[in-house]
Each structure stands twice: as C-alpha cells, then as structure tokens.
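Minutes, project check-in

Agenda point 3 was the complex the collaborators sent over. CS summarized: two entities, 626 residues total, and the question is how they sit relative to each other. Sequences were read into the notes so everyone works from the same version.
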Amino acid sequence: MTVLGVDCGGTNLKIAWVKESGEIIRSALEPINFKRSVGQVVADIASRIKIFLSRHGASGLRNLGMGIAGEIDSAQGIVRFSPNLGWKNVPLKKLLARHLDAKVAIENDANCAAWGAYCLDAKKDCENLICLTLGTGVGGGIVLGGKLYRGSTGSAGEIGHLTVDHRGRRCSCESLGCLESQVGAWGLIQTAKEGIESGRAPILKRLLKAKGALLSPRLIEQAAKNNEPFSKKVWEEAGECLGAAMASLVNVLNPDRIVLCGGVSKAGNLILNPALRTLKERAFKVPVKRVKVTVSKYDENLGVVGAALLSRE
Amino acid sequence: MTVLGVDCGGTNLKIAWVKESGEIIRSALEPINFKRSVGQVVADIASRIKIFLSRHGASGLRNLGMGIAGEIDSAQGIVRFSPNLGWKNVPLKKLLARHLDAKVAIENDANCAAWGAYCLDAKKDCENLICLTLGTGVGGGIVLGGKLYRGSTGSAGEIGHLTVDHRGRRCSCESLGCLESQVGAWGLIQTAKEGIESGRAPILKRLLKAKGALLSPRLIEQAAKNNEPFSKKVWEEAGECLGAAMASLVNVLNPDRIVLCGGVSKAGNLILNPALRTLKERAFKVPVKRVKVTVSKYDENLGVVGAALLSRE
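CS then shared the predicted structure for the full assembly.
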C-alpha cells in the first residue's frame, strides 16, 4: 500500500510516493507560481500530480495528503489563511476533488512534519512527541498518545508563538518576544543586521561583502565559526531562547521526544549546545530526564512523508 | 454511586463525599500535622477518613481519590516529591491500602482541580480544558479530548513553570522568569516588598502597619483599590504575564476553556482585565476567539471533587 504526499511550499511543490513504512519510493520537486488565481493554481497542482503519477506508472490514486503553511481547517479541508500562498478561506479539498479522483486530506505543514517525525523517527518507543520546524519562521506540531493533536479549532502546535520574553522583539504575529522572533531565520537575520549596522559584527560584514550573498543563518554560522564574538553570541542567545521554550514544553507537556528540523537546526552545536544546556537548567528533573531531543536526519522529507501518511489516518 | 475525595494540603485534609455529578454531599476539614514520620501521618489520614465515614453513616468505601501538591506518579501510586509535605518517594497508595479497604488513586492536586473544573464547569461543551491554580505557587492541569493529560512520566501540566520572561526573576524551581515567579502569591509579595523598601508603595506600607497583617495578595489588592499607582501596577504586570502565558497555551494547545482558580484569582478585574487584554493582543485570532476564560465559582472544591471523580476513571 502506497500513498501520495504533497508538500506545498511558497515556490515549490514536493510530490512523493510513500510506502506505509514512510519510505519514499519516488519524489519530484516542481516549481509553482502562486501569483495566479486560486483556480489556476489548483488546476496546475492537480495536473502536476497527474503527470507525476503517469510518469512513474502509478495506477490508481486513493489517498493524497497535502501539507500547507498557515492556518488549516483539516476537518473541513479549508485553507483558512496562508500568508505564503496569499490564500484566505480557500476550500482546497473541494477544489482538488474536481480534478483528482482521490481522497484528499490537507493539513498544516508543521503538523505534517510532526507526523512524519513520529512515523519515521519515533513510533517504536514514543507516545508523545513535539516537532519544531526551525526555518524562516518557527512551526510546530504535537503528537500525543500516538495521535496528531489538533486542538479545538485545528490550530494547535503554534510553538513558534510561545512567548519566551514577554517584553521582547515584535513578532510577525504582532505579539512580543515569541520564540520565532528570536530563533526563526528572520529573527536571526534581524539581530545580525543590527550587529552589522552598529559595527559589532565586522567578520560577518566582510563575509557578506565577499560572498555577495544575502544575510542568512548560514552566513552567521560561518562568522561564528570564524570566531566572531557577536555572531557566536547570536547563536548562544538563540539557543538559550530555544532551550527556554523547550523547557516550557517539557514542563507543560512532558513529551518523550522533541524533534528539531529545518534550516536553522543545521547550525548544529552552535545552537544545540546552549539549547540543551538551558533546557536542562530550566526544566523539572523527572520530565527532562525522560525527553530525548534530536535533530531529524529525515529533515526535508518529514513534511511530505507526514502528509502522505496522515492521509491514511 | 458516591465516591470519596481527599485534598491533602500542607496543613489540612479536606474530605468529601461526592456524587457522580460532582455535587458534594458532606465534607470536613481536618488539621493534619505532617511533621511526623510518614507511617504516623498515613495512619492518621486513614483514621480520619474512617471517622468521617462512620460519622456520616457511609457504608462501604469502594473508591477514594487523593490530591497532593507535588510530583506524583499516579500510575504507581507514589508521591515522588512533595515539598509541602516533606515527602520523597513515598508509596502512598500501598501504605493507605494497609489501613483502608478501598481502591485508592492519588494524583497531583492541580490535575485534580483541572478534572474538577472539567466535570463541574465544562464537560457539556468542552473537549480541551486548561486549569490554572493561582495560589502561593501556580499549578496547572490539562484535559485533552475529555481525558486528563498526564504526559510521559505523569508530570505534565506544570503551567506555573512556563517561561514568560527568560531573563526574569529566579523562580522557586530555579529557572528564570516562570509564570509563577510573577503571578504566584510569593512572587506578588516579593514585588510588593521591593516597592515598600524603595518607598514606592506608601499606601501598602500603611495598610500593612494598620492591619498588623502579613503582606498578602489581599493587601496588595486593597492598596490598588485605594488607588496606589505601585500596587495597581503590580496587578497590571501580573495580569500581563498571565495573559502572555495564556496566549502561549492558546497558540500551542488551542483549548476550548481556560479555568482560573485559587486565591490570586480572587483579585478579579485587577488581574483579569490586563490578562484578557494581553491574551487577545498576543494569541492567534481563530483559537483566541474559541477559548473561554472563566474564574471557577467552585474554586476551593475543585480539587476534592476532581480527586473523588478521578478515582472512578
């Protein structure tokens, strides 16, 4: 039994045939232009799925799961709001059904990643898992008692918008001091910019010029590895915020596992060491002893695998 | 069918016969001296329960639920650690079974309060509920999908130790800037003391002298109602911290209900207005529209009723 997963990013569509074990049989990455009408975009998505299916000789599509960034009403199959796609109240499930003869499930992309992490990384020895996607923003998904936890309106798991510093930086969600404003790539970049402008980050400034690149977590990582105190501190502080948020999660939800993924998690020990140290300093002893924190090795596939496997739940 | 609930405070034992509806038939408050050996205390508890039963002509005890502040392993029936009682790894369930011919369940007291709030306040129209007990410390309990959520080691629900200000005041748990350090009675009193010492709280100082009382949330409430700017600010800031924590809970757990109880919640609008305003400012729109925040009218009975009803789960 195989299922189809689709991860709908802001510029790409990732499509994958997935075994029930979570193993990917075939996958493809298709660029999508979302700056068209919803109808055009949906028709395009459907046609790319059909082409993928026929190209790989797959016969009969029964279940399709799709992950999308934003507020998703998975029960009704509606995209309530997706800033990435510019969609508001789009009945995606119904629209796709016009093109595809399959049972379609749609879900928030971080929820998909959490389900993917649970199925690929943890199912055997884990009941309660939290997944944090550390990208431009910070997303999250929660699996409790072996089931994806969606909350009362399907909005649960917005861990990026856990307050860690209630008078802190203004977040993309308008609140103050959310985890995302400190640990999301945009937050890191903002901190780095402030450092460059105030002259405290000369190595970072040099790297930025030399590479002709955009300011990114990867560049801040390089500056830190070149021993620039400012850039090292950026990671140290981001790690401390991540650790404080994980401690809150451990104290409140007492999970077996926390799985980290996404671009920012690639900074490795630069962010992990302060995060794990802070987690241990802050959380209660018994639950912190139980929780295992890992960076997922499946990373970029968690979302598409989770979407596929959720379609069968 | 009736069940017995026992709420084991630091100085009192509250015992209640409870109907399955949550209604209390009879109750008693018994002082207990915990400064004796565990064996002596347990024998005393058991004998007081027996006296209560015989006094009220109750025949045949089948289920007894007991709530205790601290880390409880409810599956094994062990009090892992209770600072209030000075107990560590006490196999309470086993010890009580030597004295009482009944099925005994023990549970963290805030979890009992959450279950009490769910059964008394919310069962009809609610799947997911969070209860915050705002007392000397801040406790919490979580009901998800109509079941008490205990987490992987039974430690879930420690909402008082959610970080709201990661560089804030040192908490009783050794972490920094926990909700409890700002909103727990001990945190409020510490803030008030600082105000008195620095001369910013003259009305509070006068009330304290006039009443010959100890500094308490009640007294800070009176000073605020006497229009002292400092004391008003104490409540304003406590409310903002409470609101930030509730926003985190709404974003992460997306509950139908948040129920507040405990002495500090008695300050009413002084703390509720800034809390609700902050919650609304900070949380995501769809889940914040769903959640209903209330102060429980059953307050002091939530724990004992919850303990009783949990014994039947």
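Noted in discussion: The CA atoms of residues 116 and 305 of chain A lie 5 Å apart.
Follow-up: revisit at the next meeting once the mutant set is ready.
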